[in-house]
Amino acid sequence: SQKIEQNSEALNIQEGKTATLTCNYTNYSPAYLQWYRQDPGRGPVFLLLIRENEKEKRKERLKVTFDTTLKQSLFHITASQPADSATYLCATRARMDSSYKLIFGSGTRLLVRP
Amino acid sequence: DAGVIQSPRHEVTEMGQEVTLRCKPISGHNSLFWYRQTMMRGLELLIYFNNNVPIDDSGMPEDRFSAKMPNASFSTLKIQPSEPRDSAVYFCASSLEHPGGQYFGPGTRLTVT
Fold first, then answer.
1. What is d(CA B39, CA A4) in angstroms, rounded to the nearest whole number?
2. B7, B75, B105, B108: which one has the fewest Cβ atoms less than 10 Å from its Cβ?
3. Could you report the per-residue pLDDT of B79-91, keeping only the tens digit for each?
């Protein structure tokens, strides 16, 4: 089955800078990756989905890339704001034969300093 | 439109007691998922339903856990008997299409003493 790795160390950046978070998968190309945001005491919130045939996807200040050669997805937040501080999770399908069952990374905590 | 609704939000119970967690998915969504989140193990899928039918329950820890979805607007996750190691936040999520984003409820924080 698939495995996902995210940097467990918190990312600490200055307001206005671009935050870049990394998600690596270890086995087969997963067909798609999803990114979620989770605030303390709340459930994850779906942000973006990128398919493996899409190199890049954008939504407002968010940008996600998918590199099947590196087995990696990058999640960028441009012009970061303190309100962007949260934990960001990536997810993909757990098995090649199931698009329903997701596995989640452990998440990377982002802290944006004012 | 209301999101996924879960109840109770917090549950504190003693070891050996039965615990029932409830979920109302987003209207029109045809898939429902139960997850458990802990610091040690992160977010783990326990079971998911498609059109009210359980599709994969391989994540259910053991026979003490059971889940039902009697209709499209309601699901329960039951733990009987509960144990301290069941303490976690339990999330319900629903989705409309695959692959598509899953929409999570606020979670139930369960503490078993």
1. 16
2. B7
3. 999 999 999 999 9
